[in-house]
Amino acid sequence: MVDMSTHPTVNPSGLSRLFWNAVKENRLVVQYDTEVGKFQWWPRPNSIYTGKNNHLEWREVSGKGKVASFSRIDQALFYYKAIVPYMLAAIELDEGVRMYGRLVNIPLEEVKPDMRVRVAFEELPDGNKLFVFEPDV
């Protein structure tokens, strides 16, 4: 277990509150535009497809996808100093949006493009959680 005492806490507010509340419950939610039938990520007040805000809702997603790209991080601040090196990856979710997160539970040299991953949740000392991705085996 990594010492997370120096990790900045998650401070959900406004638009991100529903997202972070779901993460705290081990769920991954993404905004969905009901008018066009597509997901969008990152959270926004308006649809990236129509510009409207009255057709957006939060929907739970599988949290499964594939590694689109990744980068090895060798220098970091705060809590992350204790875990370098680590991999930060762009994950193409099966629902069609790209999220970024840390890869866990896999040796760095085994990370490959297109490898299947799933969301996992890491508890912080203050009771909040972060989402990370691990191999989907």
Which CATH C-level class of the largest domain is it?
Answer: Mainly Beta
DSSP strand count:
8
CA gyration radius, whole angstroms: 16 Å
Shape: globular
Portion of residues in helices? under 10%
- In the CATH hierarchy, the third-tier topology of the largest domain is known as OB fold (Dihydrolipoamide Acetyltransferase, E2P)
Strand order of the largest sheet: 6-5-4-7-8
In what range is the share of β-strand residues?
A: 35-45%
Task: Tell me the CATH architecture of the largest domain.
Answer: Beta Barrel
Order of helices and strands: HEEEEEEEE
Mean pLDDT: 90
- Taking the alpha carbons of the first and last residues, their distance comes to 22 Å
* Total domain units: 2
Low-confidence stretches: none
Give the topology.
Blueprint: H1 17-24, E1 29-33, E2 38-40, E3 56-60, E4 64-73, E5 86-93, E6 98-103, E7 116-123, E8 129-135
Antiparallel strand pairs: 1-2, 1-3, 4-5, 4-7, 5-6, 7-8
Question: How does this structure look, described?
Answer:
By secondary structure, the chain is mostly beta strands. The protein has two domains: 50 residues, no CATH class; 76 residues, OB fold (Dihydrolipoamide Acetyltransferase, E2P). The strands form two sheets. The chain has a five-stranded antiparallel sheet with strand order 6-5-4-7-8. A hairpin with a 4-residue loop joins β1 and β2. It is globular and about 45 Å long. The mean pLDDT is 90.
Keywords:
about 140 residues; mainly beta; OB fold (Dihydrolipoamide Acetyltransferase, E2P); three-stranded antiparallel beta sheet; globular
